[in-house]
Amino acid sequence: MARRSDHSREEIRQMALNAAEAIVAAEGYKGLSARKVAGAIDYTVGTLYLVFENLDDLVLQVNGRTLDALYEWLRARRAPGTDSRAGLLALADAYIAYAETETPRWNMLFEYVTEQGNALPDWYQMKLSKVFGLAEVALKPLADHRSEEEIRQAARVLWASVHGICTLKIRHRMDLAGGQGTGEMAHMLIDNFLQGFES
Amino acid sequence: MARRSDHSREEIRQMALNAAEAIVAAEGYKGLSARKVAGAIDYTVGTLYLVFENLDDLVLQVNGRTLDALYEWLRARRAPGTDSRAGLLALADAYIAYAETETPRWNMLFEYVTEQGNALPDWYQMKLSKVFGLAEVALKPLADHRSEEEIRQAARVLWASVHGICTLKIRHRMDLAGGQGTGEMAHMLIDNFLQGFES
DNA sequence: CACACAATTGAACAGCGTTCAATACTCCGC
DNA sequence: GCGGAGTATTGAACGCTGTTCAATTGTGTG
């Protein structure tokens, strides 16, 4: 076996990330293991640890790719040239659709918790703010009487709120009698929030 | 050893739940293990499996107690006899304070995911809606021109939203430059939402 | 006092993340 | 073409995990 040199370190990295994504999609976050990923790309665990610091590092890098995919998904679905309200509703619907379509992958985005409350790496924060940026842009049309900073803050509040609705629904923390759907809740949120924010 | 009969099954259950809570508080969700819990109450793993179906069952029951504790925490901190806005702000602040004070315990509440998208047991849903009910009560003073159902929905939307803000902050998904604090974000949310909801 | 019953144990199994000495290979200089 | 240097790769090993269940031990009853 050893030293086949068939793949560069970067190729192995990409193969491993692909394999990890497939495993997560098929078996969920908990189904992921170093031996499974290694087996799927025809290498052994040892090789994986040459390319990744540890399994958390691998998960973080998969999450990085998920953030990229999420950004593209949202960008492709935003409502162009419409008013703020419609733009935000489209964005919220797209986010919800992503979470429901790619649930295990989306779940992993938040199940990964840094130990000891350490911050996430810079490149990860950048990808996150790129996603948040979409909400800021959608809110911009209201910018005439609100400061740049206020818009940024409102965008983050809305984003976090839609995310919360999404989370509780998908994790079955809102399976209550007479409950609304995720989309309805997000619309109710945005409609009422914007009435306050516009005035 | 065997059959000491020192403790009833229910006593063992309570002792195990206490021990589990202490372990989670000290080492976090990932630090929890059957052997650790068993060791802490001077029994062996086998006994644990007489009392709990499996470790997920134990986690679920710890979460049940956490929901009870959270309910009491919130109830003790709500602002009595004030208007809706103040009441909701107090509730949000209390929720945020609980999450920040009892972070590992609060985290476990949502890190536990049912496999295959199965719903959570009824007794768990009951505890959840009891907590949500606090927001409904706080919103009630606006009930004159809104239906009971609308209030229920708005309460859940607000709850999920505050939860979302809390989650992203605590999991470091909003450590962005110039970011506001959790409380400020929740206040911005409630203030703007209520302006829309009241009108 | 012995028997039956049930509470309790702890070894066993398969799998986990992680490490690292040993191996197998490739490439370079001769 | 051959030997040696160096590195990519392996896979066994360690201590941990959840879970099961035959074996053991203590208690209460007849």
Describe the SSE topology.
Two copies of one chain form a homodimer.
Chain A lengths: L8 H19 L6 H7 L4 H7 L3 H23 L6 H18 L1 H9 L10 H18 L8 H23 L11 H17 L1
The structure holds a DNA duplex (30 and 30 nucleotides).
Structural features, described:
In chain A, helix 1 (9-27) packs across helix 6 and helix 5 runs antiparallel to helix 9 (182-198). With 199 residues, chain A is mainly α. Helices cover 71% and strands 0% of the residues of chain A. Chain A has helices at 9-27, 34-40, 45-51, 55-77, 84-101, 103-111, 122-139, 148-170, 182-198. The model of chain A has no long low-confidence stretch (mean pLDDT 92). Chain A is elongated and about 65 Å long. Chain A starts with 8 loop residues before the first helix and ends with a helix. Chain A has nine helices and no strands. At the A-B interface, helix 6, helix 7, helix 8 and helix 9 of A face helix 6, helix 7, helix 8 and helix 9 of B. Chain A binds a DNA duplex (30 and 30 nucleotides) through residues 1-5, 9, 33-35, 43-47, 49-50, 54-55.
